[in-house]
Design goal:
It is built from no helices and eight strands. It is mainly β and 125 residues long. The protein starts with 18 loop residues before the first strand and ends in a 5-residue tail after the last strand.
Amino acid sequence: MTEPPPQTAPDTVDLDGRTFVGVSNADDGDVGSDTVFAYRQEDDLVWAEYAGGAVRRGFLVGTRTGDGLSFRYSHLDSAGETAGGACTSRIEVLGDGRVRLHETWAWESRAGTGRSVVEELGRRS
């Protein structure tokens, strides 16, 4: 019988080098299942580059406290428009050790707010 991987506390998970993909989003959001995020982390500093689907190229930068992230994002969409806003995220560690981020965001460049979820792509052992 295979033992499940040991559970990691969300506030101790290092996001550096993890790759995420959009799994759900509000109608006002640009991130979708084709959007891939490459996260980096140094201490409380968190940043990522993202692209795919409706997003040609995007960047986010912010801070982390415990299991929470607070950041600003900015991207160029597939129509050539720039867009940006602010987001807070809560880290969840899944049973298989992957990470899910529960996000609450608000556009600053246009009207709209929402909630989304991005989930870590499968990791190799």
